[in-house]
Structure formats: structure tokens, C-alpha cells
Design a protein that fits this description.
Oligomer: homodimer
Structural class of chain A: alpha+beta
CATH topology of the largest domain in chain A: Ribosomal Protein S5, domain 2
Radius of gyration of chain A: 19 Å
Helix content of chain A: 25-40%
Number of strands of chain A: 11
Distance between the termini of chain A: 12 Å
CATH architecture of the largest domain in chain A: 2-Layer Sandwich
Largest interface: A-B, 30 and 30 residues
């Protein structure tokens, strides 16, 4: 059976650290050990329907247009004027409102699975705008810092029109600590309303530049000088109990930097290797516990693999 | 005669393209064929004095503290608790209010010359904060996008505390077209007052990131995608007669991008080689002429050499 005659495909998409502190709405990387799985079937009816949502999150819209996975496949059908439809089952592995890219993960997993069912599968560049459309159902905007790295793998600068992979030393790890509390993306967006001053932009731009150049050069000192969010973190930190203590624990442990993962409440730290990531993550969990929050943690290569077929 | 017993030194500092459109107050490179020369003498009096200012600009403050070159040497004396003083003569090559870094150039030339007269000369990292102090007399802030590339050479990301050279293909050129009209830095700063929206900042950050990664990788397409200022240029362009036509001429001629040099009114365009820079510069001059402005132009490697001793 070739892909062209295949009628069902499954795909896994990792979670993600959106923003990476200094690249708001632009920079992201995957979280390898957590993600969503989509099972997609070609159906004769010219429509997209969601047959089931299982796993960590089940209270999601079943109407295709209101679900990131469904909306992405609606966009795929329209873009290619497909004569057939899709049925989707989602197995969610990413908790709702965790800041680990759950809505993007379902969207990308569904696209990668559906793509395998096309007579002429699309490349990543062609899938990207469809993923932006799907993700926009949840985020309200066409931002690619979550879907981008899921599609392309690694650390990715995701502009509205293109995905630019950024080289990262393969040993570098991110530890993502997820406190067991929910922060709604819309609430996290609301605190960003209002105006910003040019000096803060200049400082944040310098930080982003140092992180990007440091990653490409494998220069940990340059990343350490830059990985600090002076623009968004000050507004969102008050929404996350214990944030400053958690960040302090990461920096005291030798992290290259730490900030909020996506819209939070998860907090990530970048580390030079897996061993330090484990130590740093443990210290961050203790800090969350002192703030009254249970947590779990994920350690991932920053150069995380992209979403992949499972069949 | 060793440097330690030398009593007079001369140095040339190139002009500069500050901001480079997408790196407001952060990114800059030199303009090799235009600049200021400082002649500095060690004097017994524990003071800094300016003996003469000649050349393109003469109506500058002779009080050391109000002159960028003088203020830098005052800072040098204080930083090192020097028992001797300096006398400075400036030969200005950069027109006042041209947006080509004239105040920074005098400052850096004086520092490089004075440094040669020290018993233990400082390295660039140690000179940088002194140059920021000198430049602040003219700009009002500690921004290194002009003094940074003059001191270090090449394209430089200049944070308030460090200079980070950015690799650029050696063949790439900037053409800087200087219309014969003066735009005061303070006026150009005034139009930047007020607040900015987060979406504009995200767009500009994406542009800066693409320019930096494109330069490091020698990827002209990536630079072309990024070299567009959506944050500052829209506010300053109305201060420069003919700006949009000049920019259009550069882009139509195949420039990688074009924007305002420093605070203007000079306009720069990045080009892939010297021949295209000459053609593009000529077209930009014609566009300025149609707006009623005479102009001259400078073509420089973006990887412009740093300030240098002349003796």
C-alpha cells in the first residue's frame, strides 16, 4: 500500500517552548518527550470532522473550525480543493493551558498525518501557512513560534512567512517545569495590552541578537548574556505563583537563562547538558513546591526532532 | 621613541552607518572613505583642552566636556587617574548632522590617538565605555552603534556593555548617499517620542534576526527578507525630502535593503558588490536631485576597517 492509497495515518508532534523569552511570537523549539498524536482518516464526505479527543484534555471543541487540528485540515482541503474529507482522532499528551504548545501540537500532528494521505504530499514550507491558520483558532493570531519548530525541528525563528532554523549545539538541553495550575492563553495575552517604550525594545532586541548569534556559534557566554526577557516576562510573571524563585533557582544552578514557556505557567531553563538540566529542573520544582504548586518536568534537546509519522 | 615616551599621536576614525535600519541604537558599521582625524598631545597640565577644530565642521564646542572627543579624554583621564592631560586638534571630515556618525568619529579618533600615548594602552573593550561617555555628549544616551564599529571594525552589534562583531561577506558594500541638508540628531530623536505597539516590535525583531543570521551565513536572500525598518523609519522618513523615492531607487536597483543612516538625512543601501553599489548609489542621487537636493556618496565595505593610528 503506497501513501497515495493509504486511508489512515498517525503522527506525533512534540510540545514546544514558544517565545523562548527573547523571541516573543517568533522563536521556539520543541519539547521532545511530550506531545499530541493525531490519527487521520480519508473519508468520502467533503468535510472535516473530529471523531474523538482523548488523553490529557478532552473538553475541546469537536466542531472542526473551532479546533486547531480541524481548522488546519479545513484549510488544507480548501488550499488544494480536495474532493475528499478527513476524520480526526486526537490523543492529547499536553495539558491544557500549560504553556507547552498543546493547541499547536494537535494542529501539526493532524497536518503531518493528513499530508501522508495526499496524492502529492506538501513540503514543510507549504504546510506552514496551514498550520498558522489552524493555530490561530486558539491563539487569535498567526504566530509560528510553536507550530514552526514542530514542523521544522530544532530551534526555529518563525516569521509570518518563513521558517528559519537556527543552529544549536546538540548537547544543549531545555528543562521545562510545568506547575499544576492552568494559565489561560487569553489571560496571558491580556496583560500584554498597552504600549511599550523604545528603550525596552532596544534592550530586548540586543538580547534576542545575542541568543541567536550565541546559538549559531555555540557560544554559551553570548547566550547567557542575552537570554533574559525584559519585555514580556515582567508583565506575565505575576500570573505565575513562585515565578521569581523558580527562575532564581535555575540561574543559581547555572542555567544559560530561564523564562516563561509560551504563555506560561510552565517555566523553561536552557542548560549546557542533560545532567545540569536534571539538577536545575529539580531545583526549579522545589521552588514551585514552596509556592504551593506540584509540578512535573521535561528535559529536551533544544535541537528537538520535528513532528513525525508513527505508522 | 617608544609609544610610552611619545607625546603626540594621530588617529583616523571612519564615519558610520548607525542603526542599519533594523538595529536601532544597536547595530552599525563603518564608512571607510570618510572620517575625522584627531591629533592628541600629552600635556603636563592635568586637563583636557581642544586647541583647534578644522575641516567640514568648525562650529563645535571647544569646552572639552561639551565635545565628544574632549569628553572621552576627560573620561579616560578619570578612569585611569592620569597625572597628565591632553590637548586635541580635530580635523573633521564628516559633515555635521549628516547621519554619518561625525560626533562619534571625533570621539573614537581622539581615544585611539590618546591611547597610543598611555604607558599601558587599553584594549578595545576598555575603550568602549569611554567612547560611550564621549558620544553621549552629542546623542544624549549611551548608544554604541556608531562608536562600536569604529572601535572594533566590521558590522558590530553594540550593547551597552559589549561589542559583538557580526561576520559579513567581504564583497558586500554599503553605499551611503548624503543629501546636502542638515537633520539635527535631536530633531530626529524627537519624532521617536511616544509609545510603540508590540506587533511592530515583533516584526522588527524578525527583521533584525534575519539580517544577523543572513550576514553570518552569507545568505543574501535572508538579509533581503529582513533589511526593512518598520519601527523607526516610518517616523523619520518625513524629515528627509525625497526619502521614499531614494529608497525605491535603491530597491529597484537590486539593493539588499535601504534605510536611513543613523538619524539621517543620509540614506544607505546594502549591495552585494562594489559595482552594483556604484550603480545603485547613482540612482539614489538622481532621486535626491529630483527632490531638489544635491548629494554626495560613499561606498564602503560593510566589513569596514576600524579606526587606526596614522603615525
Amino acid at each position: 500500500m503506497t501513501d497515495a492509497t493509504r486511508h489512515e495515518a498517525r503522527a506525533f508532534s512534540p510540545g514546544s517552548v514558544g517565545n523562548v523569552g527573547v523571541g516573543f511570537d517568533l522563536l521556539g523549539h520543541g519539547i521532545a518527550d511530550v506531545g499530541d498524536i493525531a490519527t487521520v482518516r480519508r473519508i468520502e464526505a467533503p468535510t472535516v470532522r473530529i471523531a474523538a479527543i482523548r488523553g490529557t484534555v478532552t473538553a475541546l471543541p469537536l466542531e472542526a473550525e473551532r479546533n486547531t487540528a480541524g481548522a488546519a485540515l479545513v484549510a488544507l482541503r480548501e488550499a488544494l480543493a480536495l474532493p475528499f474529507g478527513f476524520e480526526i482522532e486526537l490523543d492529547k499528551g499536553i495539558p491544557l493551558g500549560s504553556g507547552m504548545g498543546g493547541s499547536a501540537s494537535s494542529c501539526v500532528a493532524a497536518l503531518v498525518a493528513a499530508n501522508a494521505l495526499l496524492d502529492a504530499p506538501l513540503d514543510i514550507a507549504a504546510l506552514y501557512p496551514l498550520a498558522l491558520t489552524g493555530e490561530s483558532v486558539a491563539s487569535g493570531g498567526r504566530t509560528g513560534d510553536n507550530v514552526g519548530p514542530m514542523l521544522a525541528g530544532g530551534l526555529v525563528l518563525a516569521t509570518p512567512t518563513r521558517l528559519i532554523p537556527v543552529a544549536v549545539p546538540p548537547a544543549w538541553r531545555a528543562v521545562v517545569v510545568h506547575p499544576h495550575t492552568v494559565l489561560e492563553t487569553r489571560q496571558a495575552r491580556a496583560v500584554l495590552q498597552g504600549h511599550y517604550g523604545l528603550p525596552d525594545f532596544v534592550a530586548q532586541s540586543a538580547h534576542l541578537a545575542q541568543v541567536l548569534l550565541g546559538c549559531e556559534r555555540g557560544d554559551a557566554a553570548l547566550v547567557r548574556a542575552g537570554l533574559s526577557d525584559v519585555l514580556v516576562e515582567p508583565r506575565r510573571a505575576p500570573l505565575i505563583p513562585g515565578f521569581h524563585a523558580v527562575k532564581r533557582a535555575a540561574l543559581d544552578g547555572g542555567a544559560l537563562g530561564a523564562s516563561i514557556s509560551g504563555a506560561g505557567p510552565s517555566v523553561f531553563a536552557w542548560c549546557e547538558d542533560a545532567a545540569s538540566a536534571a539538577t536545575i529542573g529539580a531545583a526549579m520544582r522545589i521552588a514551585f513546591a514552596r509556592a504551593g504548586l506540584e509540578s512535573d518536568m521535561h528535559i529536551t534537546p533544544i535541537a528537538c526532532p520535528a513532528a513525525r509519522r508513527l505508522d
